[in-house]
Write a structure and sequence with these properties.
The structure is a single chain. This protein is 19% helix and 24% strand. A hairpin with a 2-residue loop joins strand 19 and strand 20. 41% of the residues are buried. Keywords: 2Fe-2S, Iron, Iron-sulfur, Metal-binding.
Length: 433
């Protein structure tokens, strides 16, 4: 088996064909999905997938069908999937002793955003998974509703099919500490639909927003590291490194499977209101024993961790602007050019404008990402693009466009005379009213 590619223990890539004896497991999952679609939607739907690939799944099912499809596929493949996850621990991670495998498996079916944003808002989140049937009743009995947690607010009314995971650390959201995640591409996963990581922050103390369980607003991120995968490739990574998912801005459905391993008995962060409590031992899986362990949250808290002070990166400079309602212009004064002035925020309520210096002059755009309305001042920026800190999509600094036609930054006309700027935000009559 060839050595997997890796980066300082943060992540590694391998292909399922390198994992004996699971070389054909991707095809097995694909065939199971297509067979289930045929049962649900008929032979013509299955034929579309046979001819054009699993990436056309959104053409033959809708979001209301995803729950049934996922449940049927995971029910039939649970045992081989758990056995394959165990093989990753043995063959890829080199774990010799007994270890733990999360019983919670996720079949991720994410439609293209242009399709997903028009789907049924009552449909179930396609990014969630399922436990074994034998422990679902226990799980429901242990379920906790937290009065602070409000994910729907964060997603700004988007239907669940159009959600993307913001940057987070898994233990913030009830997963075990010290785990390793497996993110396995069943179909091709391009950069515009895959995982993103922030390895520069691997040892940083980061603030969690308990309302969302994502990174707190106001923390400026570096440019995300994109991790595209070919069909059959696996990303095995440390989920305590900040990571998220790129909103699917392609024209193809993204299909992947997620699994989780722990080298030792799982422990949980007491700051989170719930925990993933149902696990299996690798030895049981290898011996064919269908046994699920209930590791109660309150019995398995991790040792207290001394909270290091959060070292917040320098913020994008903000200048006050004056809105002239008679003319429809915002007036302001630019600071002197410096090493961190490629972007400047102009704050003139109700407007918040992002100025970017490009090779063709200064451009002005609305500072909010059009997907979730998140402040782009918190995102990374390079010579040609600015990156949303929430959904990781990039916007061209020259045009404001992203890889998704419906997600483009609102541009504003800007006039500059030395350090003095005027930004046209509206016709005079629109501002005056």
């Amino acid at each position: 088996m060839s050595a997997p590619s890796s980066t300082q223990g943060v992540w590694l890539k391998c292909h399922v064909r390198e994992l004996a004896p699971w070389a054909t497991m991707t095809e097995r999952v694909l065939n199971e999905i297509i067979s289930t679609v045929e049962q649900m939607k008929g032979a013509a739907a299955a034929q579309v997938l046979h001819q054009h690939g699993i990436e056309r799944l959104h053409e033959v099912i809708d979001t209301d069908d995803v729950t049934s499809l996922r449940n049927q596929v995971l029910e039939r493949l649970r045992q081989p999937l758990l056995a394959m996850a165990t093989a990753v621990g043995r063959q890829i991670l080199g774990w010799d002793g007994d270890f733990y495998v999360d019983d919670y498996l996720i079949l991720r079916i994410n439609f293209p955003y242009e399709v997903a944003r028009k789907t049924n808002p009552a449909s179930e989140n396609p990014g969630i998974g399922r436990l074994s049937a034998t422990v679902r009743e226990q799980f429901q009995a242990r379920k906790v509703i937290d009065p602070v947690y409000a994910p729907k607010d964060y997603h700004r009314g988007h239907p669940p099919a159009a959600w993307a995971h913001g940057p987070h650390i898994d233990s913030w959201a009830g997963h075990s500490r010290d785990g390793r995640n497996i993110w396995w591409a069943i179909g091709e996963v391009p950069a515009e639909a895959g995982m993103v990581l922030y390895p520069e922050l691997a040892n940083a103390s980061l603030p969690c927003e308990r309302r969302t369980l994502y990174l707190q607003a106001g923390y400026r991120l570096p440019v995300p590291t994109y991790l595209p995968l070919a069909a059959g490739e696996m990303l095995v990574f440390d989920p305590e490194v900040l990571h998220g998912t790129h909103l699917n801005t392609t024209d193809a459905t993204r299909v992947a499977i997620s699994m989780r391993l722990n080298a030792s008995r799982p422990t949980f962060d007491p700051a989170c209101f719930y925990s993933r409590e149902f696990w299996r031992r690798a030895a049981d899986i290898e011996q064919g024993h269908d046994e699920v362990l209930h590791l109660r949250r309150e019995d398995n808290f991790g040792a207290p961790v001394a909270a290091a002070p959060v070292q917040t990166p320098a913020a994008v400079p903000v200048i006050a602007g004056q809105l002239d309602q008679a003319s429809g212009f915002i007036h302001g004064q630019l600071p002197a050019a410096g090493p961190d002035t490629q972007r400047i925020i102009v704050d003139a309520a109700p407007y918040r404008i992002m100025l970017v210096r490009t090779s063709d002059g200064t451009r002005a755009y609305d500072a909010a990402c059009p997907h979730y309305g998140v402040d782009l001042a918190d995102g990374g920026c390079d010579s040609g693009k600015v990156y949303c800190p929430a959904c990781a999509i990039s916007f061209d600094l020259q045009t404001g466009k992203s890889s998704c036609p419906s997600l483009t930054l609102q541009p504003y006309d800007i006039r500059q005379d030395g350090a003095a700027i005027r930004i046209r935000v509206a016709p005079p009559e629109a501002v005056a009213t």
